[in-house]
Amino acid sequence: VSAADLDAFWKLLTVRATFARGETIVSPLPSGKQLTVLLGGVACMAARQKNGGRQIYAFHHSGDFLGLHGLVYGESTGQIEVEALSGCSIGTIDPDALEQALQHHPVIGQALWRAAMIEASVFRQQLVMARWPALKRVAHLLCEQLYRLGSGSRVVPLSQIDVADAIGLTAVHTNRTLQDLRKLGLLSEKRCIEVVDKERLQDVAAFDGRYLDPAVTLSRWDIRIEG
Amino acid sequence: VSAADLDAFWKLLTVRATFARGETIVSPLPSGKQLTVLLGGVACMAARQKNGGRQIYAFHHSGDFLGLHGLVYGESTGQIEVEALSGCSIGTIDPDALEQALQHHPVIGQALWRAAMIEASVFRQQLVMARWPALKRVAHLLCEQLYRLGSGSRVVPLSQIDVADAIGLTAVHTNRTLQDLRKLGLLSEKRCIEVVDKERLQDVAAFDGRYLDPAVTLSRWDIRIEG
DNA sequence: CGAATAGTTGAGGTGGCTCAAATTTTGTGG
DNA sequence: CCACAAAATTTGAGCCACCTCAACTATTCG
Fold first, then answer.
1. A146 vs A151: CA distance, rounded Å
2. Chain B neighbors of A72, CB-CB under 8 A
3. Distance CA A205, CA A144 (A)
4. Nearest to residue A63, comparing CAs of A126, A148, A146, A137?
5. CA-CA distance, B13 to B91, in Å (whole number)?
6. Is strand C within 7 Å of residue B22 (CB)?
7. pLDDT tens figures, A106-126
8. Measured from the CB, is B170 under 7 Å from any atom of strand D?
9. N or C: which end of chain B has fewer CB within 10 A?
10. What is the distance between the alpha carbons of residues A139 and A207, in angstroms, rounded to a whole number?
11. Protein-proximal nucleotides of chain D (any atom < 7 Å from a CB)
């Protein structure tokens, strides 16, 4: 990615805004072709269920595109929204400016497809996790978040309720499972979710982060992401 | 899709072969950029688990691309294979010929992306189903298969074990759930899985097949699939 | 300081699992 | 066409991971 490409990309971000935890960043339907970039904080792609519950499909971190599902799925699938899980700041991209930039800087388009493919990749991993017991599931989610936050991070900035909604457990059971992880010496005894022993946590979760960085290579379509 | 496009596509299929139920059509790793088209029968994309179990991610029907995951994910994710669930016939596509055809017939490339997006879409729906009770899950899977097989179909050509591996239930519990559906008058009493009351089955499953036909529209990328 | 949110703990219920075996169907070789 | 093997379906009994409901405590924030 050249400096010129990056520069062009930053110029796309026209509107900047901030959101507090719990606020909706991208609404279900009217989003249309609107594309958003998360500049700071943690958000999630989620759907509200008829019973009032919330199903979290994936978490978003700084640098992620928000609302890709709107481009990809159209209005064909259920009410997906993007919700702020911490204080978040975002930039929005004007569709017209995006079209122009895509022509001059194909790298941006590649990044979009890469992001869409990683999303699918995360979905598939979630399907695998769905059949694991609670301890392994929670452990894997924490590994995934540490991986995305960067190597230095030890604290996962999510509430237990967020974790529960993401892996499909009750908040109560999630709590008990976290306590089990603490008793095992994998998490600290603090109130927040702080990983003490990342190595053993990854063993418990059988974590392999490679699915978070898929190489998108499709023939001569010129879409090739350096590993 | 013009006749010329279709013609060009059929000329791509060089090698034709048949497989019996249980045989592996696309192997996990060495598949590489090999692309395959399912010409007849039913297959599934699945992964073998350490405990010997089989997790089915999605089913493939006549006309589907097989091994797309190899293009999209590279070798980054677990051992995915494509397995024949009935007698299957396939055609394979030579990578070089594909590259040429992609340039002359962009429709083919669009079809590839469309297929990849539908796969992701199916994954996401599976995530939703994973939190439903068994009856609703089985019912939804059957609706999905009827939808893919075409409006005239009433029989789902899968074994109960296939169904179980796809939705994450035991074969035993899947059997009991199918019997519940029979008692409800939604399935026939035959040995195979034959849907009697498609309407009520869709009610039970809260089925909405639109996620199987996402419109892939990404700005000026010229990828637009007619509804 | 009160109100809302998040975390913790307890008691009891249940959906789906495990293990085991019988029965039916399908496939295969003679 | 039959005999046997392999695979698929069915049935029963017991168990446990996770859920539900219901408090109580700790924290954050206006």
1. 7
2. 117, 120, 214, 216, 218
3. 10
4. A148
5. 5
6. no
7. 778 777 777 877 888 889 999
8. no
9. C
10. 9
11. 7-13, 17-22, 26-27
> Which residues are CB-neighbours of A77 under 8 A, at least 6 positions away?
A69, B121, B124, B125, B210, B211, B214
Residues 143-182 of B with CB under 7 A from strand C: 168-170, 172-173
Helices B95-104 and B106-129: crossing angle, nearest 10°? 110
CA B65/CA B69 separation, integer angstroms: 10
Given a cut of 80, whether residue B78 has pLDDT beyond it is: no
Determine the nucleotide nearest to A173 by Cα–C1' distance.
D18
Distance from CA of residue A74 to its chain's centroid?
20
Q: Which tens digits make up the pLDDT trace of A154-209?
A: 999 999 999 999 999 999 999 999 999 999 999 999 999 999 999 999 999 999 99
> Cα separation of A69 and B199, whole Å?
29
Say what the pLDDT of residue A214 is. Answer: 65
User: Which residues in chain A touch residue B99, judged by CB atoms under 8 angstroms apart?
Assistant: 219-220
Residue B224, number of CB atoms within 10 A of its CB: 10
| Cβ pair A30, A80 in contact under 8 A | no
- Chain A CA closest to residue B121: A73
Q: Which two tokens stand for residue A48?
A: 């509200």
Residue of B nearest to A45 (CA): B124
Helices A3-12/A95-104 angle, 10° precision: 170
Note the pLDDT of residue A51. Answer: 84
Residues facing B136 on adjacent strands:
none
The residue ranges of DSSP E strands in chain A, in sequence order, are 13-19, 24-26, 35-40, 43-48, 54-60, 65-66, 80-84, 88-93, 155-156, 193-194
State both tokens at B20: 């019996």
The C-alpha angle with vertex A178 and arms to A176 and A182, in degrees rounded to 5, equals 115
**Contacts of residue A134 in chain B, CB cutoff 8 Å?**
none
Which residues contact residue A61 at a Cβ distance below 8 angstroms, ignoring those fewer than 6 apart?
A: A38, A42, A148, A149
